[in-house]
Write a structure and sequence with these properties.
2 copies of one chain form a homodimer. By secondary structure, chain A is an all-alpha fold. Chain A has 10 helices and no strands. The first copy, chain A, has 2 domains: 51 residues, Homeodomain-like (Arc Repressor Mutant, subunit A), CATH 1.10.10.60; 139 residues, Orthogonal Bundle (Tetracycline Repressor, domain 2), CATH 1.10.357. Chain A is elongated, with a radius of gyration of 20 Å. At the A-B interface, α1, α6, α7, α8 and α9 of A face α1, α6, α7, α8 and α9 of B. Chain A binds a DNA duplex through α3.
Chain lengths: 210, 210
DNA sequence: CTAGTTAGTTAGTAATCGCTAACTATGGAA
DNA sequence: TTCCATAGTTAGCGATTACTAACTAACTAG
């Protein structure tokens, strides 16, 4: 019993360690013993901060959801156009996954979702919020005359939504050996170029309010 | 000891049962006991057919890879054009995942891949072969004048490759509650419409050999 | 300086995991 | 009908799992 940390500090430390172990071995291989050892406390000590392992997973999910939203907000600001925001937000999501590879393992884990409904709902909610964000940005792009409205904004959002987990799957399967946001940006550029542009560029003041 | 089956029949039965259990609870929750119980034999009986659990996973992977290829081949035949083949093949992949939901759980499982390198390679090889198939079809579409060649066939294939796992992720997270190939077809149609068409339609005999 | 709160430890629990050795009995070939 | 290869069983192994009870000692408010 060397150093003694505050409960909130130790909780954060345990969550962080859990994310690292998930990235290495997958969620189901993360034991309370492994977490405790890496943190530097005993296995029983983990249960002082999380009454059951299930609560540890919920804390991990809460961190992931919060961090994702924080990154979208940062990326969504200060862009030239709604289309530029779309690109920035999607790339930010890929950067998040590359920085925290545990995320994809957690989202894909059938084991966790099958027996922890609350956890599945948390990630589903995150996906829905991302979808809503993209839909809004797509609508803005159309209202500002950047994109044609022949494709519904919801469909544009759906296409973009599949993009990150799709590429992340390949990235994970290939041993995380390429730069995810970099390759993602290249493909995203191609995809965005393909989206039909509006015939005439609306002048300032012409576009509807978002 | 009621009925006694041939080893090959029993092996197939065990693999099939394993796939069902993976779809329900995830790969890591599939125990030899659970498989044995559902098959109707004792736990130790499983090890007569698979010397170690690892070998069971390899057999499962072999089935998945084989079945996927079989479906691509069927879907790739008898289409009006290379572009129609692309669509058919991608939809077939989605039908496969919907019919056998274990597939996505297996491909996404960090646990299996982290400690069974051979398994990861099997699925990576499958992805690579699908990528090669799509690249070839995209090239055909360009050579026949169906698509413009402003986008490299490899990039078209990459975009299409991310599509299935991307949508499957959403499908899985949402509790498999929508029809995967149906929604996939809708979005795929939109995506394919976006791909730049060749300016002039080449006449028969005009196009290069694939 | 003291006393209460609480982070952390020691030492266990029952349950479950993959796997094995030794035995049993089934079904096809002769 | 006999015989034997082998599918399948019984019983149990050591290791690991999440989790608990009882204890210890480090911070901190008074």
């Amino acid at each position: 019993m060397r150093t003694r940390k505050s409960s909130s500090d130790r909780k954060a430390e345990i969550v962080e360690t859990t994310l690292a172990l998930v990235a290495e071995h997958g969620p189901e291989r993360v034991t309370t013993q492994a977490v405790a050892t890496r943190v530097g406390i005993t296995q029983a000590g983990v249960f002082r901060h999380f009454p059951a392992k299930r609560d540890l997973w919920l804390a991990v999910a809460a961190w992931v959801v919060g961090e994702a939203q924080r990154r979208w907000e940062v990326a969504g600001r200060l862009n030239e156009s709604p289309l530029a925001s779309i690109k920035a937000v999607v790339i930010a999501q890929m950067e998040f996954i590359q920085d925290t590879p545990a995320v994809s393992s957690l989202i894909f884990s059938r084991e966790l979702h099958a027996q922890n409904e609350e956890l599945r709902q948390a990630f589903l909610g995150m996906a829905d919020r991302f979808y809503a964000l993209l839909t809004g940005l797509a609508k803005c792009s159309q209202d500002s005359g950047e994109l044609s409205d022949v494709i519904k904004p919801e469909d544009i959002a759906s296409l973009l939504l599949t993009f990150t987990p799709g590429l992340a799957t390949r990235w994970s399967l290939g041993g995380r050996s390429f730069n995810l946001p970099r390759r993602g940006e290249r493909l995203l550029d191609i995809m965005l170029t393909c989206l039909p542009k509006a015939n005439r560029q609306l002048r300032e003041g012409d576009h509807a309010q978002a």
